[in-house]
Amino acid sequence: MRARLISALCGTASLLVLASMHPAAAQQAAQAQPTAGSSNLEEIVVTARKREERVQTVPMAITAFSSADIEKQHITQVRDLEKAVPNFSSSYSSSDPNAFYSGQVRIRGLAGAFLYFADVPVTDADYSNTTGLTKGLSKSFYFDLADLEVVEGAQGTLFGRPSIGGFISIQPQHPTSDFEGYIKTTFGNYGDKENEFAVNIPIIEDKLLVRVAGQMQQRDGYTHDLQNGQDLDNINYYAWRIGVTFRPTDDFENYLLYDGYWQDSDGATDVMQVIVPGFTFAQIPLPILGNVPLTLGNGPALSGLTNPATAAATFGQLFAIKAAGGQPSLSFFPNLKSLFAQQQALGVRTILGRSSSGIGKDYFYGFTDVATWDVTDDLTIKNIAAARVTKQLGVDDFTNSTLPILTIGWPSTDGVTPGNNHGWTDNSVQYTDELQVHGKALKDKLDWQVGGFLLFDHPIGYNTEISTALGAPTYDHFYERDRSQAVFAHGVYDLSDFTQALPDYLQNLRFTMGYRYTWDFDSLNEVSTKPVDFVQRNAAGIATNCNLISPHDNNCNYHVNSNFNSYGWNLGLDDQVTPNLLVFIRAGNAYRPGGINLAVPAPFNKFNPEHATDVEVGTKADYEFMDVKSRTNISAFHTSYKAIQVSQVVTIPSAVPGQPPSAQQIQANAASAELAGGSLEQTISTPFGLDVHGYASYIYTKYSQYPNVFGQVGAPGFQYVPKWQFAITPTYHLPINPDYGDASIQLTWFWYGHQAVTPLENEIIGNMPHYQDFDLLIDWNNILSYPVDFEFFVTNLTDNTHVVGEIPLTTSLGFTSAAYNPPRMFGFSLKYRFGPGTEHEAAPAEPPSSAPPPAPPAAQQAPRSYLVFFDFDKSALTMEGRNIVDQAAANAGPAHVTQITVTGHTDTVGSDAYNMRLSRRRAESVASELEAKGIRSDEITLVAKGKRDPLVPTGDGVREPQNRRVEIVYGGGPSS
Fold first, then answer.
1. What is the three-class DSSP state of 964?
2. What residues are paired with 259 via a beta bridge?
């Protein structure tokens, strides 16, 4: 990592003038000397705007990770990003991200952030029901990656689904032309065993390439279930990936990817924090006693009164309480107080037991095909087609008290053994296709894109959801279809032709504009029965056991359709003030589609889209002071958030005459808010082996209106959004002989502010306290110059315990539970790499002391040389590039030059033919400028070198910035 930080060049077009030096010195400078203005910090190329650009030149807030960053920062699931990404938060109602109701990801305080894998959306912004919330939240995508990027702000134009807060994009490693790969194994506490591998197989060089990768992990749980002796919160999963790149011609490439993931676990844990035994659900009129409250845990059991064998005795108990002057009451769970006291004594790493659930499972797999055709140098057509299958069996017990207060999963038959789950909670397939046309126009000043997107998501059979509340199970059998379609256009225009009269720092202005229109359609068919059973009918053939909260037909079928459409736009202006300083302002609008509430009648069965419009200003800078290289990225934003989808409790009349109304929690559009904040990301690289990366972010949130159904005096706090977040990661590289490898120590400190967890004013616990974590990593790479890496890691170094998710239900069910963070985890891993560049080279032997030193090489007169650097994937001269070429032309006469050789170079990303064309275009750009300054065309020789002859040797597909240059060499004159 440190070697790359020292050698990699990051910044926009950088220039170096080499004059009057010996050939040996010139060669060393060309290969090792940094360019003027470069920071020597790691360069990461991102695709946030559907084209490859260096992250420091993209005018929006992006946190990007290279493959080395992902591994070094132990990013193995989405919640790990909290420690590395500002304005990023995740809410969990369970400690296991694979568990049902696992929560949401929020960027800049807004939920509904999409996750894209290989440019295909794998999460759904429609949270109208509880299925599918964990799509993309599993660990299946976080291995053998090329890069990962988190983009902040409303993204309503370019990517497949509009995202009101931002998105996460993950790119897997693609096949390369070399036989190479790695094997990695990890062992840790709690019986942790992990294995990972990747192998790249070039079947036909540069034509047919295959990459196979896999990962597995098995780890014991850390929460003990007293009832059955199991250890919950365990991990058991397998993930696999096969990628095939096919290049039948130089201008066409097809990438086919198959990936999959399987996991099952014994379940996660939520621990009771608050119990309100006297919480009253209804008043039951009884003779003599009057209205008797039906409570959660006060008084004799309700079942005792409804059972003829015990009814008299139970009534006698109630009468005795009233006769003594007390208030008689009935309860669902009379032993609740005792069980809660026992749980409190056990702490958070042991639970009394589950009343239902069982084994939860996920099975995801998908096929992605990316076809790219370079029609011309200025026109590319790209199509991304995918099919992804999701099979999920969600389980959860929200109290783990042995009582069926609120559970997801098949109920227990004996009260001790968790129920056996039947069917899939989510059993669906998603088809997507996106067509993109990329081009350049107006003398390469305009980069434009147009395209269309289509998504169709439907179940493979019916989805089945089993839930139990207060001991009464409900069986929901539903079939939901979603369709989304959109068209879009996007362009970036270089304004340099119009800025000639402006100051130098305004010469590189660019204007960005995009527009997208999206149509979304949703259809739901539902069968709900109560209790858990198939539909039961009376003599007339009418269903008698439907869930009568919602209007069903005689077959317990409930059907509703909804459709929504809206626009999204993006505007921006940025200025590359210097090669290493970018300033920008952008604004965007996006919408999140509405959806359908399950099991409620109109008008509560639908909710509408919500909209977010944001404005962002920012700067990205690389600089150096006293050999300390730094990168500072700053952004500030304001978001106007309208028609927000919030959870509300509404009163719904009963369909059964004489029965009281019921209270149901639904999604509804009933709020608007203003959000404002900013972030600072800082990276420092010192010459004495210490590198530091950190961030700080702040978000101010305020509801400007909110429904008053909860009786708030004012608007509640914004849910699951910490006002402050901090993280700092210093890494110290030990000063050892490079022949022994690179050894470093890394410590991460992360602080996460308190969060509101409910909009309900009367909840006993309405906020989640702030917390902090420490992680430690000690690694040793290239051990003794062998391609072997070792690491020792510790997460939650101080073994602290804190809440990571709340289930605040004291106002609706009389309890609040919490999910807690994992305890201290530690382990060791060993990685072996093979392929080009990994061969062991022994250190050269010391020459005998008596041997005379070698004679210095004979001095030779060197040609006059200049180097001109280009932006990634660009052939146009920048302002600095033009200046250096003009200087070369001006010096040609005094140097008595009769011949100039102009050699273009590229990195190794893309096909041979494409890179040869790009390198020649770069050489032609320099030659054209030389001719414009008076150099005759017959005195200029053009040479193009593509990916097969890079200036700095690299593997195929490596984005090496030092290869993006043109060499100008004087030659042929008698004294040149």
1. coil
2. 241, 366
The token pair at 886 is 């003009």
3-state secondary structure of 90: strand
Burial of 626 (0-12, 13-18, 19+ CB in 10 A): exposed
Single-letter residue type at 912: D
Which residues are 482's β-sheet partners?
Answer: 457, 522
Give every CB contact of residue 901 below 8 A, 6+ residues apart in sequence. 940, 941, 943, 967, 968, 969, 971
Mean pLDDT within 330-350? 94
**What's the pLDDT at 92?**
62
Pick the closest to residue 511 from 528, 492, 496 (CA basis): 492
Give the torsion sign (CA, 301, 305, 309, 314): positive
CATH class of 180-267+357-667+679-708+724-760+776-821: mainly beta
* Range(s) of the chain covered by CATH 2.170.130.10: 42-172
List strand residue ranges (DSSP E) for 308-445, in order: 330-331, 350-351, 360-376, 379-393, 396-397, 406-408, 426-441
Per the listing, tokens 């084209």 go with 51
Q: Which CATH architecture best describes the domain 42-172?
A: Beta Complex (2.170)
Instruction: Compute, in degrees rounded to 10, the torsion defined by CA atoms 908, 912, 917, 918.
Output: -10
Q: What is the pLDDT of residues 897-947, one digit of tens each?
A: 777 777 777 877 776 777 777 888 888 888 888 877 878 777 888 888 877
Residues 6+ apart with CB under 8 A from 468: 355, 356, 404, 406, 407, 411, 474
Selection from 11, 10, 173, 142 nearest residue 73 by Cα: 142
Q: Say what the pTM is.
A: 0.82
pLDDT digits (tens, 9 = 90+) for 863-903: 468 888 887 777 778 777 888 888 888 887 776 677 777 77
Amino acid (one-letter) located at 709:
V
**How far from chain centre, in Å, is Cα 933?**
50
- What residues have CB less than 8 Å from 509, skipping those under 6 apart? 494, 495, 496, 499, 573, 574, 575
Task: Assign domain 865-971 to a CATH class.
Answer: alpha beta
3-class SS at 160? coil
Torsion 507-508-509-510 (CA) sign? positive
Say if residues 425 and 394 touch (Cβ distance below 8 Å).
yes
